[in-house]
Amino acid sequence: MAALPAPHHLFQGLRRAAISAPLLSRRGILATALALPAAADLIPSARAAGAGLPARDEFAVGDLHHLDAGTMHPMSKGAKAAIGRYLDSRSLDGTNPYDRKLDEDVQALFARLINADPAEVAYVQSTTTGENLVVQALDLANRKGRIVVDTLHFFGSFYLYQELARKGLDIVWLKDRDGRIPLSDYKAAITPGTLFVAVSSTSTINGYQADLKRICEMAHAVGAYVYADIIHSAGCTPFDVKASGVDFAATASYKWLMGDFGLGFLYVAKDVQPKLTRSVFGYYQLDQFQTHLYPFDPPGESIADYAPSDDAGGLFAIGTHAHTVGAQLKHSLQYLLDLGIDRIEAARQPLIEKLKGELPKRGYQMLTPPDSTSPLVACAYQDARALSDRLAARKVKISLSRNRFRLSVAAYNSMDDIDAFLDALG
User: Fold this and answer.
1) Degrees to nearest 5, angle at CA 347 with 152 and 338
2) Where are the domains of the chain?
3) From CA 129, how far away is CA 187, in angstroms rounded?
4) Which residue, 232, 313, 253, 209, is CA-closest to 83?
5) CA-CA distance, 274 to 394, in Å (whole number)?
6) Percent of the chain with pLDDT over 90
7) What pLDDT does 12 receive?
8) Could you tell me the CATH superfamily of domain 341-425?
């Protein structure tokens, strides 16, 4: 089919359509004029803020000992200002100041963070949305074969794989031993006929870090694909999708990407994309679109001619996504890149090591493996929510589950936060 010009009303969604200046309407010109400031204006000195990690001044946590970024990361002052500028423009006359370039910039920043090509990244609502889209695109519900999942994967996905088991797939659950999944268990489970392996690069349960490279090598040897939940890796631990070998990866932005709810990213390796079945259809997938029924339209045999873009967005983009969060991420992703994920990881290690040393001495059962460098430290503790009053009295915020508590050490944390937590425990 011959290339067709994309209509202006799809300007925000069409990812790579060439729209010449004369075709811009008054509304389009106004949207461009109201676009957010350039990157240099959006980002105050991120390097200066992170020069003496931890970078507490960039966050308004005050005297709160906030050790819960792995549940929801505090919004930085720079990100809040970026949202304010977006809302100021949005309030003028209802025109959306979030232009296509800003959309592409945010996508490119995330791609750079995980060493992907922007064409391998699509916007999704959440990590769970990304995982479900991958399962649909591989048509797993209608196939026969094996899926390997471990019990340190995100527990919210257990429902998905139990439902696939009901449809007849052979779901193999690998159970942790001493807070980790041995590679020998993966080797035994990933047999010929395995279709798919789902794993969390860093477990939300205890911070265990999977050896994705070895898992991918085993899976690819039998023709299986690997999906990784990277919500506790991207933004807090150096992570490279190419080095890992994963076929798919998804994350939301409200944790370590310092964004908010409602916007995340799905990575799809370029060599895998042609092998997928498009399972959702939305106009944000389209690169070219031309109707044949409205006044002054060119004649055509169909109602409309179209062509989806040849990238991850062309497979998985459906409709609009959260522009307010996008404006926030424009700041936050650049801030993380400027600060340096390796520096963030290095700065938190003394804090992590103190927790790993002190908690067992006080009789707490560690769930986190000793060699983990992730930001998560977890302990088994019956009725952990009973600790809430004691922690609140010392202005300490951690994650309390029914029988587990978890600390998340972020760039803004210091040893004072660790000491306050330990003092609160008594």
Assistant:
1) 95
2) 102-277+311-336, 341-425
3) 28
4) 253
5) 54
6) 80
7) 34
8) Aspartate Aminotransferase, domain 1 (3.90.1150.10)
